[in-house]
Amino acid sequence: QNEKIVAVAPMMDWTDRHCRYFHRLLSPHARLYTEMVTSAALVRGRQLRLLEHSQQEHPVALQLGGSEPEELAIAARHGADAGYDEINLNVGCPSDRVQSGRFGACLMREPALVGDCVRAMREAVDVPVTVKCRIGVDDQDEYADLQHFTETMLEAGVRVLVVHARKAWLKGLSPKENREIPPLDYGRVYRLKREFPELTVVINGGIATVDEVRAHLARVDGVMLGRAAYHDPYLLARVEQALYGVPPPSREAVLARLRPYAEAELARGTALKHIARHLLGLYQGEPGARAFRRRLSEGAHLPGADWALVEAAAAPRRAA
Ligand code: FMN
């Protein structure tokens, strides 16, 4: 099972570099994804600091949003130059802001344009260019739409497709509702793998347990975990153990390994709250999980909060 892929999903405002560093400590093998970065921010805005990451994060993929092939090619090049192991194009995000710029899920209606984007990006970089999409948008109810999209991606040279197994309804639903209301249809993703065996298919959406991970991996090549990994990060250690036999570190050991990173960040002027907020779910399901969460979230906002707070929140947890 070792060639199977486990990934942590790109999540805006969540999977920043602090979060990815923390997830890496829990999961040596998982492929980590950045938050979406728009090609316009990198190319027109020249905000190259958005590409900052730590060497510990590898393998790590940069997710780009955009729909202009030349701009995406330059952005992809920036990403590859910065050291990212993969460049992923977002064709699945339904937010309004994203639609107005004509990127994200609405591009599922324009496979030819997405193909042009991917081709331009592939010409610009040596690392793999992958695509993350939905099973459809709005009235695309036929498997044939997804099939046509996939054929177009294969022709453009895509070898890895991440599929969020629900449609995006672009009218009337908020982005959050679009991650909850359109029903999951794993069958469509399995079918895609059966009909395109040469394509590496990574399934995403609603996967929350080790057993579910195993069940999906019996039918597709990889799983991508989003909210479950964020809210219950220790799930990543359990998955790591189940798939790769890596003994899970204790939660305290994970915090001890995070400490030097956090202290170096604090010394650079990063506020503790920016790191601590990703740790709140570490004790999910354990005694004292709520006390840990509360102590950490309240204390991290106080001026001068340092790493001692995290250790104090973890230590008396059982007594709480
Ligand atoms: N998907 C993207 O492709 N790019 C994003 O930037 C992105 N931001 C997200 C932000 C948040 C807070 C959440 C919850 C999801 C986001 N997503 C984004 C969608 C996730 O990558 C994933 O497809 C979705 O949450 C379904 O997986 P899950 O059920 O395991 O969470």
Question: What can be said about this structure in brief?
Answer:
The chain is α/β, with parallel strands linked by helices and 320 residues long.
Task: Describe the 3D structure.
By secondary structure, the protein is an alpha/beta fold. The chain has two domains: 5-244, TIM Barrel; 251-317, Four Helix Bundle (Hemerythrin (Met), subunit A). It has 14 helices and eight strands. An eight-stranded parallel beta barrel has the order 1-2-3-4-5-6-7-8, surrounded by five helices. α1 links the parallel β1 and β2 (31-38). α11 runs antiparallel to α14 and α13 (289-299) runs antiparallel to α14 (307-314). The N and C termini lie far apart (41 Å).
> Any idea how many domains?
2
Strand content: 5-15%
CATH topology of the largest domain: TIM Barrel
Structural class label: alpha/beta
The count of strands amounts to 8
Determine the fraction of residues in helical runs and give it as a percent range.
40-55%
N-to-C terminal Cα separation, in Å? 41 Å
The CATH superfamily of the largest domain bears the name: Aldolase class I
Task: List all distinct small molecules, including ions and cofactors, that are bound in this structure.
Answer: flavin mononucleotide
Instruction: List the helices and strands in order.
Output: EHEHEHEHHEHEHEHEHHHHHH
Overall pLDDT level:
94
The first-level CATH class of the largest domain is given as Alpha Beta
Number of helices: 14
Anisotropy-based shape? globular
> Sheet with the most strands?
8 strands, parallel, barrel
> What is the rounded Rg?
20 Å
CATH architecture of the largest domain: Alpha-Beta Barrel
